[in-house]
Specification:
Number of helices of chain A: 7
Oligomer: homohexamer
Helix content of chain A: over 70%
Strand content of chain A: under 5%
Chain lengths: ~120, ~120, ~120, ~120, ~120, ~120
């Protein structure tokens, strides 16, 4: 079930990610598929786009750039516009401080460029 | 302008908050009204309900309970349902760890009870 | 399965905890039982006492006092001596700073007193 | 040597603090006296007032309220004015976010009131 | 007004920074100029050198290296000596832990080398 | 005394580390040898392997990768098996969130490869 949700969010990229994750540790990969995507993201009650934006908010204030990169792509795939993503990052200057927002925006620019999203 | 946005989100409660904040420091209060509510929350491009849920996500992983309490009320006033708020908090177990989610849920229960929101 | 592990660590206290957690949110409680205790703590490869001490280390540097209180009791139930727990807390002054260690030690004293563990 | 520095900063209050700390753990107390006050605060190259303000900055963004309370008193004893302390706290809204600054200011008000420092 | 303060601290480097920031997001750049430099750093009541050292303290414990690099240069431009900066970083071992201090010192060495500040 | 403990944990690598640390700052190096290894790690009451695993737990949730790399090697030298280290990292998904665990596992893979520890 988590695999289906993962595909819904990231498409073919999900398999590639899981393959490389699996080399790191097959068990944490399994828990990610089962708990994160099977249990949490699969829950009704909140749409995937809003879930993605909340994740972007959390990872920005926590300063977890590797995962932020990955979830910024997920947010785009879940229908968040570039504008909406930038709004979340700017808003995080209030809660995590300006350095968190600057680091988040710099990561977002990399992702937008990679995805060919022009300004 | 920030005052208008503050009223839109919290109603009369906003004045009371600002009065007590003002006793702490009138300058930080002014910056909050000007920068946080006048500049950031007033921006188009993201609806207030989504902004509120992203704030709830950030404050939960940061463990800032005083502000979380306050923004949980704001989320309700901005149209987030109890279900949607609980979904964000549960999702934060993935990004900030289970203790963050437990603390967030315990704060949310206090707020829901205070606002008379039954299960 | 997670229930069994939970009982192994906290005994009857586990049911009481889960009952009160359940009032907060039955789903997060279920995930805690399934993922945290059923999947993670149930894994072979590391004894429960060492798992508990690592959790105490993490919660101390994160400053999550509610959960720290709870896991300090768990560490005692898993066979950690008062001395071993104090050693972990003192060591955390190096990694999370002295304020983390002081807050952790103050929480530990409350727990030791409650459990009637004399010096 | 650390004892002398501690007395310089907090006066008689230092003994009282150390007595109550000692009940928590005599070893961490000893390390605090030796390493924190004997080694670090005792170093030439930076005056005690600036050291105190930097500590206030760090504890504010980390959200360590117990220690912040204590070091706010230390800052006052080291010659920082109420205005200078408030400036550091307001500035932390930029680096640790507004919730950090609000929590810091609320703690500072308690300390200023306790010390009888009128506006 | 914030532009003037920015120039006071970083000189010509400020324009270059703002140009590259502007490519990331012109709005966050504007808020940085207006709120951070126009409002906060422009306030009387605390000298720029002490403000810089407090910022260095906060960024060190938060582990925000990109911004730390930038503010270490600002601290030098604001008159902080290499010795004073090192003192703040060493002191942060107490509040944010030794890893925070090590990372901060390693960043500082890069900046001092770049600025041609010999030991 | 701290030097002896450092050698016990890291062997010849310890001298090399201290030499490069010493270039960053000889005083922080001295405090690390004296306080961290001389005082803390040298204490009886907890074996070095468990101390190492607790340090790995703390650095993982704090996201301090430079130091984590270093202490993962220390854990191996102190007798922790690859399996035990992976268990601690997986467990940290519960306390610091999944991104902390993923980053920790990715760092661990680098270290295991460098040390020639096959799966």
């Amino acid at each position: 079930m988590g695999l289906r949700v993962g595909h819904e969010i990231w498409g073919a990229k999900f398999d590639e990610m899981m393959r490389s994750s699996s080399e790191i540790d097959p068990d944490l990969e399994r828990y990610t598929v089962e708990y994160v995507f099977g249990d949490v993201y699969n829950r009704p009650g909140l749409d995937l786009k809003t879930r993605s934006l909340c994740t972007v908010a959390a990872l920005t204030v926590l300063g977890r750039r590797n995962q932020l990169r990955f979830h910024l792509e997920g947010a785009v795939k879940n229908g968040a516009s570039k504008r909406e993503i930038l709004e979340v990052l700017i808003q995080m200057s209030v809660y995590g401080g300006f350095p968190a927002a600057w680091d988040g925006l710099s990561t977002a620019r990399e992702v937008f460029t990679k995805l060919g999203m022009k300004d």
